[in-house]
Every structure is written in structure tokens, then in C-alpha cells.
Amino acid sequence: MSGVAWAADAAAPAGMASIAQFAPLILIFVVFYFLLIRPQQKKAKEHQNYLANLKKGDRVITGGGIHGVIASLTDTVVTLEIAENVRIKVSRSAIAGSVAEAEKQAPAKSGG
User: Fold this and answer.
1) CA distances from residue 38 to 41, 42, 59, 93, 100 in whole angstroms, order as listed
2) What are the φ and ψ backbone dihedral angles of 57, each rounded to 5 degrees?
3) Domain boundaries of the chain, sorted by first residue
């Protein structure tokens, strides 16, 4: 059992080879950042701005789909009037958006 042991080839320069190996991974991360992460952060920031600027009389929709008019609000709680003399308290973070914005996004139904 005598054999010849061959020495391995000399390693390629480590700098360019390692960058070339990680280039696809870096490219995928950049694409995910611009297509998923950045738009989501922008939308979350806009929603936080909207919640901070709520005022009495605004027509809003909760995350559960309840439509109402803001009767009063505090730092954390919003009181909605959902019918005449029917008021509910919800967390400010439960407000999903404005009624006007939801009506804009909903497709128009044809009569029939």
C-alpha cells in the first residue's frame, strides 16, 4: 500500500474569490431590501403619522372592520361612535385607516 500523495494546487487569491462567492447573496439581499423591507417601513411610518394626527370627527375603520366617527381620544384610547348614542372604546393602534381612503381603494360596484 504505497501510493503517491499529490499536493493540492495552490489556493487562488482569497480576496476576489470570496467576493464572487457572496455576490449572489448580497444581490438577493439588496433586491429584498428595495422590494419588501423599504416599502413596508415607509407604509408603517405613514400609518404611525396618521395615528398621531387623528382628531375628533374623523371617520375611521378599525382593524376588525368597524366603521365609526371619533367622539374622543386620548394618547392610547379612541372612543368611536358607531351609531347614534352607541360608543365603543378601542386602542389607538386598532385604527386601520380612514373611511375615505378605504372607499377610494374599494372597486366601484356596478348596479344590478
Assistant:
1) 5, 6, 29, 21, 26
2) 100, -10
3) 15-53, 55-107
Phi and psi of 58, rounded to 5°? -70, 140
Q: What is the pLDDT of residues 38-83, one digit of tens each?
A: 999 999 999 999 999 999 999 999 999 999 999 999 999 999 999 9
State the alpha helices, DSSP H only, in 1-112: 14-32, 38-52, 99-105
Give me 54's grid cell: 387623528
For 55-107, the fitting CATH number among 2.30.30, 1.10.3470, 1.10.10, 1.20.1330 is 2.30.30
Which residues have C-beta within 8 Å of that of residue 4, sequence separation ≥ 6?
A: none
The answer to whether the pTM exceeds 0.85 is no
| 83 sits in which H/E element | strand 77-83
